Amino acid sequence: MTQTADIVICGAGSIGIAVAYYLAQWGGGDVVLVDKHPPLSQTSAKSGENYRNWWPQPEMCHLMNRSIDLLEGLARESDNVFSLTRRGYVYATMDKTAVLSQTLPLYQPLPVGEIRLHTSSNTANYAPISPNWKGQPNGADILLDRDLIRRTFPHFADGVTAVIHARRGGDLSAQQLGMYLLKQAKRRGVVELRGEVVGFERDAGGITAVCVQTATERQTIHTRTFVNAAGPFAPHINTLLGVDLPIANVFQQKVAFDDPLRVIPRTAPFTIFEDSQTLPWHDDERELLQAEPDYQWLLGNFPGGLHIKADGGENGSWIKLGWAFNQTAEEAVWKRQRLSEFLDIVLHGASRLVPGLAAYFDNVSKPVAHYGGYYSKTPENLPLIGSLGVAGAYICSAFAGFGTMASCAAGDLLADWVCGTALPAYAAAFAPARYQDPAYVAGLAGLEKAGEL
Ligand SMILES: Cc1cc2nc3c(=O)[nH]c(=O)nc-3n(C[C@H](O)[C@H](O)[C@H](O)COP(=O)(O)OP(=O)(O)OC[C@H]3O[C@@H](n4cnc5c(N)ncnc54)[C@H](O)[C@@H]3O)c2cc1C
């Protein structure tokens, strides 16, 4: 079968749907959204569903501020159909010195809002935590007073000496957001097609057609504009287009289970433990691990960044733990095996920050939800949004662990590229063309050597 479209998008995850929505909104033309799977069923179904504007690069702060502005507008117009909340993001550490000597100077010049320090002589103006996304403080509160930390986060270990509470953050339902955008996009004429993008036709002027294999036939969709929003499979689509970009897929996991002892307060914000650590195994476990060459890595050092969340709202009882410690890139596959030791690893790690979780060692109630997906990322962990360098071909991909929160701004920005609208100043930082600048590429090598990626 042969058909025509102004624009074909490959991928109906959070990103492809947002691109379709903003293209339809800004009058981009007839859009066909192609996916091999049901919408939002792949990486986007694995998201922790958290968002924040607290990022170490100015361009990422601008992108996320724009995305959160758009999310708030959508929450307003839809009567918050996707359950946007705003308890903020909490970063806890036992190393107060690093917060004062590194984090503070890094973030103070960034567009993250006002940063307020709360020391023992100044704890009064710390605004209480609320789930309501409206009327919340912006910026961040840095808690350095141990009594204030104890009172606000009684479940934390005594050794915690500093807490950064970034206030423009919280969570949302990625599925509800995506389905809302998809419904609106379809109302404006976007057409969904279930099938796999398997090839392209081109002439001297660029793309002329996208070839799609459906369950029953091979279709040719004549078009001059194509968007690669294929998530972890974006490198494969790039290869079909003859484009080479540095995207690596790294598998990351989460577990969720019941917390009958209410170790994590239901009102606690999404929390990240900043400190690296070795896991607190019992002596007998340590001996067993030491004796098994395949398991000795469990005795090594693990990086900071472990996530803890009360999942399912204030009336729920589940908690979610995640830890993106894997750093090994691999070829993406549709069904990937999970690490059977992950629950034990993340639970032991989390108990360093929240000692009460030790009650669940060998004692987690069933069922345990264990899932994972790829962080699809560039070396400098900035997404790819813009022209692919083949006439008519664009990419919106490499959103690692931030695709849910960035989806609206990314879709909006990609629509600007396709429609030829003036681009915001931050667009260049995400354009694939950045890799054509030798100085930029040389800078990446330096970053890798310094271990900052
Ligand atoms: C464990 C985990 C936790 C995360 N937590 C958060 C979080 O808290 N906050 C946040 O903002 N982000 C988070 N993320 C990141 C976020 O989930 C992703 O960045 C986002 O879902 C990526 O969306 P996507 O549309 O690019 O990819 P996907 O959702 O994978 O969508 C890509 C789609 O392309 C389709 N496709 C691929 N190839 C083809 C082809 N050839 N033909 C047709 N269709 C094709 C696939 O079927 C798929 O549906 C997390 C990710 C993981 C793995």
Kindly describe this structure:
It contains eleven helices and 24 strands. It is an alpha/beta fold and 453 residues long. The protein folds into two domains: 2-49 and 174-247 and 378-449, 3-Layer(bba) Sandwich (FAD/NAD(P)-binding domain), CATH 3.50.50.60; 89-170 and 249-375, D-Amino Acid Oxidase, Chain A, domain 2. Strands 5, 6, 7, 8, 15, 16, 19, 20, 21 and 22 form a ten-stranded mixed β-sheet that branches. A six-stranded mixed β-sheet has the order 10-3-2-14-24-23, with helices on both faces. A hairpin with a 5-residue loop joins strand 23 (384-387) and strand 24. Helix 1 packs parallel to helix 5 (174-187) and helix 2 (58-77) packs across helix 9 (403-419). The chain binds flavin-adenine dinucleotide. Flavin-adenine dinucleotide (FAD) is lined by residues 10-16, 34-37, 42-44, 46-51, 196-197, 229-233, 237, 252, 254, 322, 372-373, 375, 397, 399, 401-405. Residues 10-16, 34-37, 42-44, 46-51, 196-197, 229-233, 237, 252, 254, 322, 372-373, 375, 397, 399, 401-405 line the site of flavin-adenine dinucleotide.
Q: What is the rounded Rg?
A: 23 Å
Distance between the termini: 46 Å
Tell me about the largest β-sheet: 10 strands, mixed
How many domain modules? Answer: 2
CATH superfamily of the largest domain: D-Amino Acid Oxidase, subunit A, domain 2
CATH architecture descriptor text of the largest domain: 2-Layer Sandwich
Low-pLDDT runs: 449-453
How would you describe the shape?
globular
- Average pLDDT confidence is 95
CATH fold annotation of the largest domain: D-Amino Acid Oxidase, Chain A, domain 2
Strand content: 25-35%
CATH class of the largest domain: Alpha Beta
Total number of helices = 11
| Bound ligands, each once | flavin-adenine dinucleotide
Helical residue percent band: 25-40%
Given helix and strand content, the structural type is alpha/beta
